[in-house]
Structure formats: structure tokens, C-alpha cells
Amino acid sequence: MRLTGRNATVARIETCGLVAVIRADSPGQLVDVCRSLADGGVEVAEITMTTPGALDAIAKASEALGDHCLIGVGSVLDPETARAAILAGARFVFAPTLNTEVIAMAHRYDRPAVPGAMTPTEILTAWQAGADMVKVFPANHFGPTYFKDLLAPMPQLKLTPTGGVNLDTAADWLKAGAACLGVGSALVRKDLIQNQDWAGLTALAGKYRNIVEQQRGGDR
Predict the structure, then answer these.
(1) What are the structural domain ranges in the chain?
(2) Labelling 3: which of 14, 28, 197, 217 has CA 20 to 30 A away?
(3) Which residues touch 42 (CB under 8 Å, ≥6 apart)?
(4) pLDDT tens-digit profile of 208-220?
């Protein structure tokens, strides 16, 4: 059966295995950033609402890149922001916290909702509220073994870590059962962006994608 709408978007995020978390000081180069990441195999990018002019950046990136890079929104704290970002072109909604109204708003527009949670109770509450995936944030305080502990009694969960994911830890998170990885400054490096080293950014993205493929047996 061919997946469509929200389910197809979730499947694409999981297939990629990586979400680039972009917290930029300026929106000016975000199209180049997202294109470079996608060229390296990281074709899912989350533009956070903490970025100045985030809605305009989402709109421009979505229009310029189309299906080459799946553009979504992050750091969403309320349903009004989720709606504005979706209307601007966001294909998915990530949040650092659990707000069930954000989940409902995203689903109203057939967009995946990935709220943030930390404790087992919060994570299960988010899942039962309809989350398409749960972002464990900040994940670096517990590490990959926390995912193993969570998934043992709750194997139905789809978890993604944000915080503490880099080239040294990415494989461990995947081995622990992460559905995909949220990677911020360790991937979206400010020095590469400031120097407009798009080839360097593409090469770095390729290193992360190779880790995903190696951990999944190279079957993708």
C-alpha cells in the first residue's frame, strides 16, 4: 500500500534517519544550507522558530527546494505558531515540549507532530495523544541507554533524540532503537555556513548518512 499525506512524510523522515536542526542567527543562507544538506543525503531539515524571520525562511526554502529537501518547523510552543508555519510551507512540526493542541493542529493539516518529552510518563502521554514520533529532549543528559530502557517495556514507541547527537554518538543512538536522529550544531556547523563552504557541509552530511546506512545494514 502506497503511503500518502502525513504517513508518507513520517516514512520519509524515518527512511532518511536524520533531521538537521537549524538554529540560525540569520535566515539569509538557509536555502543554501538546506540544499547542501540534502545533496549529502540529509534531506530533512527543521528550521526552528528561534531563527529570525523563521516563517519567511520556511516559505522560501520550501518553494526553492520542493521535494529535494523536506522542510519543517521546530521549537513550536503553541498551536497558533504551528498553523502559521504550516501555512508558510512546513511539512512537519517539532516541539521541545508536549502540547496536545499543537499535535491536534498539525494533524488538522495532515502534518506529522513530534512533541518533546523526557520522562516515561511524558513520552507515553505524548504517544497516546497522537504523536507521530516523540522527541526525547534534551537527550544528552541520559544517553542512548535511556532509549533501550524505554523501548524494553514500550516497544511501540518511535523515539528521536535531540541534544548530544554527533558523529561519535550517532551509531549508538541508532543501535539503541532511535527511529531517526535530530542533529543540530554538530552537523549544521556555523563555521561552514559563515565561510559558505557548501561542499564541506554536503560532505559532512554524507558522513552522517553513511552512519545511518551502515547501522541499517546498507539496505537502503
Answers:
(1) 17-207
(2) 217
(3) 16, 18, 20, 183, 187, 205, 208, 209
(4) 999 999 999 854 4
The rounded distance, in Å, linking the Cα atoms of 37 and 69 is 8
Here the cell at position 205 is 552530511
**The model scores a pTM over 0.70:** yes
Residue 203 burial by Cβ neighbours in a 10 Å radius (0-12, 13-18, 19+)? middle
The architecture that CATH gives domain 17-207 is: Alpha-Beta Barrel (3.20)
Three-state DSSP class for residue 22: strand
Q: Count other Cβ atoms within 10 Å, centred on residue 176.
A: 18
Count the neighbouring beta carbons within 10 Å of the beta carbon of residue 44.
Answer: 25
The beta-strand segments (E) located in the chain are: 18-22, 44-48, 70-74, 93-94, 113-114, 116-117, 134-136, 159-161, 181-183
Point out the residues that are catalytic.
46, 135
Q: What is the pLDDT of residue 166?
A: 97
